[in-house]
Design brief:
It is built from six helices and nine strands. The chain is an alpha+beta fold.
Length: 228
């Protein structure tokens, strides 16, 4: 196992954010995030934010033909094939594993179809983009683990599993979360708000906020980061 500095500079986290890691590399990211939760979570968010910035800076409206071609390349299937919508690499690997065990292979809808979180959002609105295995954490897990579900110029959607989250303030990124499992208290400028399964958390700009998770529990949620 590499030390933290070598791991960060190895490029594995960039591949992980893009969904191009192997099963072994996914496991290594999970192990390192358990050992260095704050550092790994910070690096993943930095990479995701950099991708958002580059996407927005270089955004050009593509033609319909180009969109079709790009989707086909990501899926590894010919254009016009309905199965070419299966673009999430991690979900493909999960589906393939299920197929080897005799279960039906899970298909995945593209990231551009992930709906924005709103007060009316339900957990079942997002189950096309993750599987139950994505919510499993190792015994004794502590810190923060992130899994990218989709990335577009408009937003990045992740699953976050956490036992503790450092307080922070956002000036240029909106954060919204939909609780999948567990509970947490969000403190915004000395006001405490409690959240449970199915609740939406909308983090305001320019206000310090802290997240308190009951000791010995893991809070799991869908997290969306949207440029302001």
């Amino acid at each position: 196992m590499m030390n933290l500095e070598d791991f960060i500079t190895s490029g594995i986290l960039e591949l992980y954010v893009l969904g191009h890691t192997s099963d072994e590399e996914d496991a290594e990211v999970l192990i390192m995030s358990s050992k260095f939760p704050a550092e790994i979570a910070h690096e993943i968010l930095e990479i995701a934010t950099a991708l958002e910035y580059l996407a927005l800076k270089n955004a050009v409206e593509p033609s319909a033909k180009l969109k079709e071609s790009v989707l086909a390349k990501f899926s590894g299937m010919p254009a016009n094939d309905p199965a070419s919508q299966e673009t999430d690499v991690a979900e493909k690997k999960s589906g393939a594993a299920a197929g080897r065990n005799g279960a039906a292979e899970k298909t995945t809808r593209p990231a551009i179809e992930i709906p924005r979180l709103t007060p009316f959002s339900r957990i079942e609105d997002y189950t096309d983009w993750f599987v139950p295995e994505d919510l499993i954490t190792p015994e004794g897990f502590k810190g923060v683990h992130l899994k990218i579900l989709g990335h577009t110029a408009e937003m990045t959607t992740m699953i976050i599993c956490a036992t503790e989250i450092e307080g922070e303030i956002h000036h240029d990124i909106y954060e919204r979360l939909l609780v999948l499992e567990g509970t947490c208290d969000v403190i915004i400028e000395n006001k405490v708000f409690s959240f449970h399964r199915g609740d939406l958390i909308d983090i305001p700009l320019h206000k310090w906020h802290d997240v308190v998770i009951p000791e010995g529990t893991v809070c799991k949620a869908i997290l969306q980061r949207i440029p302001a």
